[in-house]
C-alpha cells in the first residue's frame, strides 16, 4: 500500500512539474509570501541503522545537498532577520521566499548540514533545546526506543516480559512497531514517561544502551557555526511540550532558555520554535513578554506581512516527503 501511494504521488508530482502547472501554483501561492522549512537530522544512509530517531525527522545528507540547489533555483532565500524586518517593520515580504531552519541542535547538523549550507551559501537558523547542548543527554523518545530495542533483542524472559508489560508488544517485533509504541507515549503525562524511563534504566543498569549516535552539538561547535551564516534561536530548555506543562514551568522554559542561550553565544535570541510545534494564546503571550520577536509552529502555511509573528508556520521536511524535486516542491506547496 505504501508503494502504491508513493507511486501515485510521484506520478502526480512529475505531471505537475513537467507540464509547468507546478510553477503556476508556486507563483500564485507565494506571491508576497515566504515559506519556512523545518529540518531536524541530516545523515548519510550508512548512519541510519545506528540511530534511534523516527524517519519523520531524518533527511539523507546527499538529498539535502540537492534540495539546497533546488531551493536556490526556484526560490528567493532569506535569513531570519529579513523575516523579522517584514513582520515588525511593515515591509512587504518578497515573493517566493524561503527560510531554512533546523530543530534540536543535533550533532549531525554540525557534521553534515553545515558543510552543505556553506557550500551553497545558504543562511539557516537552528533552534536549540538548552539543556541538551554540550551535555550527554538525549531526548526521551530516542532513549526509550533504544531501551525498548534492547529488550526486544534480548533472549532473557524478564526483558521480554517487561517489554510486553510496558508496550503490549511481543518480543521480536520490528523497529517500526517499537517506534510506534514510543510515539504513542507522547500523549502521556511527563511524570509517567519519566517514571517509565527510570524503571527501564534500573532494569538495564548492567546493560548500557548505545546512544552515542543521537548526540547534540557542543557550545564550541555552536559558536563556530554562529561565526558563519548560521543563526540560533531557542527550542526551550527541556524540549517538553509547553502546552502540556504548568504555566510557571512554561514561563521558566521560555524566558530562561533565551537568557542562557544569549549568554553562551553572545548575541540576541529573537526567535523560538515551540517543541513539537505546540502553542496556544497563553504560550504566545509568555513568549512575547520574554522578549522574543517571533515564534514558530509546525504545519502547512506561509508567512506574509499580515502573519502572527508568534505563530509562524513551518513545513517539516524529511526524506520520505522530499525524495525528488517534483515531490519536494509539492510538499512545499501543500499539494500533498
If you had to describe this structure to a student in words, what would you say it looks like?
- The protein has 336 residues and is an alpha/beta fold.
- The chain has helices spanning 2-18, 21-29, 61-74, 80-89, 107-120, 140-153, 157-167, 175-184, 190-203, 219-226, 247-265, 281-289, 325-332, and strands spanning 34-39, 41-43, 58-60, 76-77, 97-103, 124-128, 230-234, 271-273, 294-296, 315-316.
- Strands 1, 4, 5, 6, 7 and 10 form a six-stranded parallel β-sheet that branches.
- The longest helix is centred in the last third of the chain and has 19 residues, at 247-265.
- The chain is globular and about 60 Å long.
- It starts with a helix and ends with a helix.
- The mean pLDDT is 96.
Specify the number of helices: 13
* Global geometry: globular
Strand content: 5-15%
Estimated helix fraction:
40-55%
Indicate the mean pLDDT.
96
Summarize the topology.
Layout (H helix, E strand, L loop, with lengths): L1 H17 L2 H9 L4 E6 L1 E3 L14 E3 H14 L1 E2 L2 H10 L7 E7 L3 H14 L3 E5 L11 H14 L3 H11 L7 H10 L5 H14 L15 H8 L3 E5 L12 H19 L5 E3 L7 H9 L4 E3 L18 E2 L8 H8 L4
Parallel strand pairs: 1-5, 1-10, 2-3, 4-5, 5-6, 6-7, 8-9
Helix pairs in contact: 1-13, 3-5, 6-7, 6-8, 6-9, 11-12
Amino acid at each position: 500500500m505504501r508503494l502504491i501511494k508513493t507511486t501515485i504521488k510521484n506520478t502526480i508530482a512529475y505531471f505537475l512539474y513537467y507540464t509547468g502547472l507546478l510553477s503556476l501554483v508556486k507563483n500564485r501561492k507565494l506571491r508576497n509570501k515566504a515559506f519556512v522549512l523545518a529540518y531536524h537530522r541530516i545523515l548519510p544512509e550508512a548512519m541510519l541503522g545506528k540511530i534511534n530517531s523516527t524517519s519523520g525527522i531524518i533527511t539523507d545528507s546527499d538529498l539535502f545537498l540537492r534540495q539546497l540547489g533546488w531551493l536556490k533555483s526556484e526560490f528567493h532565500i532569506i535569513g531570519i532577520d529579513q523575516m523579522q524586518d517584514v513582520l515588525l517593520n511593515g515591509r512587504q515580504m518578497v515573493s517566493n521566499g524561503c527560510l531554512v531552519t533546523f530543530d534540536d541542535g543535533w550533532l549531525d547538523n554540525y557534521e553534515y548540514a553545515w558543510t552543505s549550507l556553506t557550500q551553497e551559501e545558504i543562511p539557516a537558523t537552528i533552534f536549540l533545546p538548552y539543556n541538551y547542548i554540550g551535555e550527554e543527554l538525549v531526548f526521551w523518545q530516542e532513549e526509550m526506543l533504544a531501551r525498548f530495542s534492547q529488550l526486544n533483542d534480548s533472549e532473557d524472559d524478564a526483558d521480554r516480559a517487561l517489554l510486553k508489560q510496558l508496550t503490549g508488544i511481543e518480543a521480536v517485533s520490528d523497529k517500526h512497531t517499537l517506534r510506534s509504541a514510543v510515539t504513542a507515549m507522547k500523549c502521556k503525562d511527563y511524570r509517567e514517561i519519566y517514571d517509565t524511563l527510570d524503571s527501564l534504566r534500573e532494569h538495564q543498569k548492567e546493560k548500557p544502551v548505545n546512544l552515542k549516535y543521537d548526540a547534540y552539538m557542543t557550545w564550541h561547535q555552536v559558536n563556530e557555526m554562529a561565526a558563519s551564516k548560521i543563526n540560533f534561536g531557542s527550542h526551550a530548555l527541556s524540549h517538553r511540550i509547553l502546552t502540556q506543562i504548568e504555566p510557571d514551568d512554561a514561563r521558566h522554559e521560555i524566558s530562561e532558555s533565551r537568557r542562557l542561550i544569549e549568554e553562551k553565544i553572545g548575541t540576541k535570541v529573537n526567535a523560538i520554535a515551540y517543541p513539537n510545534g505546540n502553542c496556544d494564546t497563553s504560550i504566545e503571550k509568555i513568549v512575547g513578554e520574554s522578549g522574543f520577536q517571533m515564534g514558530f509552529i509546525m504545519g502547512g502555511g506561509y508567512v506574509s506581512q499580515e502573519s502572527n509573528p508568534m505563530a509562524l508556520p513551518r513545513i517539516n521536511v524529511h526524506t520520505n516527503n522530499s525524495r525528488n524535486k517534483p515531490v519536494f516542491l509539492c510538499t512545499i506547496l501543500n499539494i500533498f
